Amino acid sequence: MKVNLAVYWTGGCGGCDVSFLELGPNLLGVLSRVEIVFWPALVDTKREDLERLPPRSIDFALVNGVIRTAENREMAELLREKTKFLGAYGACAHLGGIPGLANQAHGILESVFGPNFRPAPPIEGYPEDAPAQVLFEALPLEDVVSVDFVVPGCPPPAGLVARFFQAALEGQISLGQVFAEEKALCEECPRKREERRITRVARPHEVLLDGEKCFLDQGVVCMGPVTRAGCGAACPKAGMPCTGCLGPTPKAGDPGLAMLSALASLVRAGEEGEAAFPEEDKILDGFVDPIGTLYKYAFAKYARSLAQLTKRREGMRA
Amino acid sequence: MSGFEPRIVAFLCRWCAAAGADLAGTSRLQYPPNAIPIRVNCSGRVEPQWVVEALKAGADGVLIGGCHPGDCHYVVGNYKTRRRIYLLHKLLADMGIEPERVRLAWVSATEGARFAQGMREFLAELKRLGPLHENGGEK
To answer: Where are the domains positioned within chain A?
Structure first.
């Protein structure tokens, strides 16, 4: 018995679609057991084909990308209707991802072109030539439809994709499952932790990095302590700090604020005390891009509602 | 904004600020009743997530009261808090929220008057800033 599979790409870069190739030879085993009923990036299937399917006839659907346009939302709703188990695949669908950082602006088009801007078809063009209707906010999938499981990552690492397919083919997926560990990334990171003291906050290109030592010990912000394990610490092994693409551990909660808290506790300018305050502040001032560092992938899910508060107030005063 | 009464959540350290607030009360000092006090064992226990949660949930400002430098019952808790709030201020400013809405104050157990005065000042500051939420936070 083959399993019906659909894969769809909303507001993303396409890397998630390519990430299936990382399975290598195992991909052949997976493909022999799935029936691809809808996957526009891979096989010739159109929206009409999806509309023709009876409800709940797809066993598993994977949506990658952020929900950015009205069409994205319609497709997500359509897939939800036709699918038994719908999953968020990749950081954009899971957390909003890098496109989710657009939520810092109060409506991305409105903030650039003014409050009354509406996309329109070109003069003497057809209505369908109009640019896509861009939503006011870039949303993670769960804000539009109910999501049954998550395959996290940017893009999801091969090991986690394999874990998903194994569970899917055996019918072993539970609702709410996230295909990554609940422990923190640090637990599978080979780097050595020593001082746990930060005397300077630096970005990776500003310091000559030691290949063996923990990034935090070297003053480079690494999201490992608040991020799920599951990738085998791929980035730290390759010489770059973790940026948090697998999303926060269940204990961390809001990953940005959890990391902010951890970072502040590690900063030291000599003996702690009132005399050290100015020096401590100087170290903390070295942390130049809090939003981009702490919420590289998770801004839409965790910080959007807070940032929008102030934007609404601006509207209220105007 | 004339009728605007800011809503404040106050996290108060058990050893100093909460004791200071108690003293203000038992001394019958008058101060504005806008704050919901939450007693914590140490200001170092106050997670930035709680502060942001309070702002999201409808507060216009958050006060964190801890011991004076050198007085922390757990030796260094208030130093950690100070650094966390310093970073949180930077993050809030980047999001377009006035950092002044989150205030860290040192209050000892004997400073009831200082607590009352700090509350009055914070309230005045929040009234100047105006409401954080639409409709003053009413859903």
So the answer is: 3-178, 185-287
